[in-house]
Please model this.
Amino acid sequence: MTRKQRLVVIGNGMAGARLVEEIVSRPGGEHYEITVLGAEPYGNYNRILLSGVLAGSYCPEHIFLHPLSWYQEHGIRLHAGRAVTAIDWQGHRVQMADGDWESYDRLVIATGSSPYLPPLENLLREDGRLIAGAFTFRTLDDCQALLAYSSQARRAVVIGGGLLGLEAASGLRQRGLEVHLVHRSPHLLNLQLDSVGGAILARLVSEQGVQLHLGKETVAMLGQDRLCGLRFSDGSELACDLCVIATGTTPNIALARAAGLAVKRGIIIDDDLACSVPDIFAIGECAEHRGQTYGLVAPLWEQARILAERLTDSTSRKQYTGSAISTRLKVSGLDLTVMGDKEPAGPDDEVITYAEPTRGIYKKLIIREGRLQGAILLGDLPGSVPAARLVQLFHRGDPLPANRVELLFPCNGKNQQAVSVAELPDDTQICNCNGVSKGAILAAVRAGKRSLKALCDATRAATGCGSCKSQVQELLVLACEGEVVEDPSVHYYVPAIPLTKPELVRVIKERGLRSVSAVFQALANGQEDPTSKAGLASLLKTIWGKDYEDERDARFINDRVHANIQKDGTFSVVPRIYGGVTTPEQLRRIADVAEKYHVPLVKITGGQRIDLVGVRKEQLPAIWKDLGMPSGHAYTKAFRTCKTCLGSDFCRYGLGDSTTLGIKIEKRYQGIEMPHKVKLATAGCPRNCSEATTKDLGAVAIEGGRWEIYVGGAAGSRVRKGDLLCTVNTHEEVLLYMGRFMQYYRENAKYQERSYDFVERIGIEQLRRVLVEDAEGICARLDRDIQAAVEAYVDPWQREAEQPVTPTQFSEALEATPISLGAGN
Model:
């Protein structure tokens, strides 16, 4: 029997693990006895999604590509947490940190890269570790340490305006921190964007609440044992209590250099991915090919595919000739794809541009000898050519149409038509990370992969950065002719617990689970998931009312301090003004508070209330106490307000007393927890001046002293007239049916499902059957449960103004230090 070849892979990151996966899936892979040596004590995880973990959209368990059990199932020896310290290439063996040696016939080095640390004064302590409060953002351990520290931080600074820096800033902002981004270049993504694109991107990032300091060079960390700020080259300073350093990476070549392998910036490899000594190969971020190192996942996985083919097929002559680079920014709300050159190389290059800066749209194409050499595609422009099509033209080097406008706007005669992914050729590459074409996706669907999860698992599409998932979904629906098999997880109430909302409610009640931590302990093997906490907290409060065991870390910052956080880290305070009716005495108190606490902005809201904007966190309890008014709950997912018109008491058109009714509604249901925010209105006649038909719930007076009750209206980013639930005769009946609908919505809506989506999903006929006709016999119970919620309500401002829940609930982690901004601001 022929002895298996001993293949040792140093590195269990995205390149090394992908190589092993490729080998075991190919004919010829069975000829290898594979050992993987990884410095991190885990299985392989998707490093690209760490920004999602930071933002709270993923929990750490969800980003693992290969858990430890996968290695066992495939006969792979994994030494997790055992770093390699030496390579003896003449003796064909490697040494680990504990002194043990591992022999090999073939060795692959996939050691990746490490964060580059700029030479900042006071960055490193005497023991070589970063000053407390400073973090890199490269590994899962980095991310978890950053998350733990950020829970006690107020102001974070990210140094570096590249892809990773922007993603880190966005993640910290979504965690509720005040976030500043410092970048030494005058514009963001200066390696990928030109100055025009960088300026438009800067405006979009600023609108998301990240404060930019461009053209600023950091020279020092401030603080003794703990970070308290940064100093810049112009002498100005910026106070902070957390800093993320995202200033690039350095290939890990120390091991190869010590062994005598040829190295420059990276480990030198040829087109066969071989190093300068026999039987050793290198792939990934540690490798340098034709003077180029790569930090994106697509080139790494391309190298893994080619090397796996060469190792498993002795006849293969497959060569790696380099990778054309395209990438996409993974920040919520931003749509940016970049590839190739950002500027023309000479006078013969063509430059095609289209810009609408106020809409955040910028398209720039670089054309050389009739082929696409580079592109910047910022912003979603309806009717334009999909980015996937331009990426395909770039990677394949296809000849371009003579009419260059067709590259941005598809033309059909005189009419422009939108191009969907369905219209692209089958050889169009949809997933750039894994090189998956449209044709491969359609073939997988025809082979039976009819749910999104099954399709992604089978093809690997959307398993890298995930930015192509919407296109994969569109192709799935197309190929299935609409008959998509749903993955059960889409119905889970929260990601971490495989139960629908009714199932979860039943189990919570049966087991008496009254806190978020108790739910995790009982139903998620004790593993906490940040993305599930807020949804569980909302559900538990709905179920248990006053018996709910509140845990502050399960709440978003708004709910922890009962105010709405603003882009600069300050808060807005909106006191309750029932039905929009106030008094001179209340107005005097509001004015006195605004003057006493130097409130920067006093704003009349669309909900007939007054908003005090720009309040510092430590001021909140004192302001609440001085106002002496209840919370308006303008910061949370709950009953917000009931807007009213003058009604029959004053208006000559009035048919009903809408003002009194609105006050009754607001006093009864104020602050009650909901799956999403709920806004109401009452109108004294069908002229509908208070816009009651486009609120979550509305009541409109009609002839005969009657009231029409509408549900599921909307007038924000989506406009929808509510559906008529029923017509009643009295204020008391309006209160009854509105409360009944609210309780049914509380019990049956998905977390963060707006009432208008809920009404459309359930259907107005079904709602009438259940809530008006009592077809299911639950109306009396719904009425009791909403009454219990009303009785359990306690105003949070009055409760916590005198006695904070925690000693640091309203404390500031630091004092803001004035700064002078450098160039580019």
The chain has 24 helices and 42 strands. Residues 182 and 270 are 38 Å apart (CA to CA).
